[in-house]
UniProtKB/TrEMBL annotation:
<dbReference type="Pfam" id="PF20066">
    <property type="entry name" value="Glyoxalase_8"/>
</dbReference>
<dbReference type="Pfam" id="PF19581">
    <property type="entry name" value="Glyoxalase_7"/>
</dbReference>
<dbReference type="InterPro" id="IPR037523">
    <property type="entry name" value="VOC_core"/>
</dbReference>
<feature type="domain" description="VOC">
    <location>
        <begin position="56"/>
        <end position="172"/>
    </location>
</feature>
<dbReference type="InterPro" id="IPR000335">
    <property type="entry name" value="Bleomycin-R"/>
</dbReference>
<protein>
    <submittedName>
        <fullName>VOC family protein</fullName>
    </submittedName>
</protein>
<dbReference type="InterPro" id="IPR045517">
    <property type="entry name" value="Glyoxalase_8"/>
</dbReference>
<keyword id="KW-0046">Antibiotic resistance</keyword>
Length: 172
């Protein structure tokens, strides 16, 4: 997304380009043109919608500590249904760093000592939690059969990986 600062720089460049062709437009007219190009009805609407600070975070990707690649794949891929996005090792006999994804949820799994601490909890806002529960129950995973729990703030489905990490899926 464009920041307000970037949009102002775009307007300044636009005015300079017009001036190079002996066409003069006001600063406010340039701002209105930039707003239009960015898909806003006017500059005021653009200002309200654009990030004022220039800093914007897209998402957070958690890193979870793992100790056994086979157990991690069994739990995260076979049981939870994640797909592997990438795998990385500095050398064949060094620790694994693995990126997994399912339905927009990205998690990194690491065998590297300094990347994360076992016992981490992830809180994952979830749609269709009943469908997730039914899917996991149907797999008859030997190390856990998570149940839906009704809380005052929504339904919760917690799963525990083989390394002491917990994923708390919640639909509220």
């Amino acid at each position: 997304m464009t920041s307000i600062t970037q949009a102002k720089h775009m307007a300044k460049r636009l005015r300079a380009q017009f001036a190079a062709r002996d066409l003069e437009i006001s600063h406010s007219a340039a701002l209105e043109l930039v707003a239009d190009q960015l898909g806003f009805k006017d500059w005021n609407t653009a200002c309200a919608a654009l990030d004022q600070s220039g800093v914007r975070f897209e998402r957070c990707i958690a890193i979870l500590r793992i100790f056994d690649e086979a157990k991690a794949r069994e739990f995260y891929c076979d049981f939870l249904g994640f797909s592997v996005e990438f795998e990385h090792r500095f050398e064949a006999d060094l620790p694994l760093y693995l990126g997994i994804e399912r339905a927009g949820l990205k998690i990194h799994l690491s065998e590297h000592h300094g990347d994360a601490s076992p016992g981490t909890t992830l809180f994952v806002p979830t749609l269709e939690i009943q469908a997730l529960h039914d899917e996991l129950q149907a797999k008859r995973y030997g190390y856990g059969r998570p149940q839906l729990v009704e809380q005052g703030w929504g339904q919760v489905l917690e799963v525990y990986d083989p390394f002491g990490n917990r994923i708390r899926f919640c639909q509220g």
